[in-house]
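Appendix B, record 7
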Amino acid sequence: MPFWQLPLKANRLLWIGLGTELLLIANIIYTPFLAAIFMVQPLTVHDWSLLTLCPIIMVLIEELRRYLCQRLWSHSTNQNR
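Structure tokens (predicted):
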């Protein structure tokens, strides 16, 4: 089943974990003394756009892979009958 067919409230702990992780990362990057400790710099708009685009591309590739595997699997099992 594709991920977009799952209800958004299906896994509450996943959403809590993602939110916590994003808050921690933003805090480390944009709080000056934490940024100095971890030796990081604020992200640019270009960086954020890449960070947004990459997961979308990865999900699309994974869904294409799943679709092709299902088609090839069903095609090969139909030939064996």
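Remarks on this record: Residues 17 and 43 are 22 Å apart (CA to CA). Residues 10-42 form one domain.
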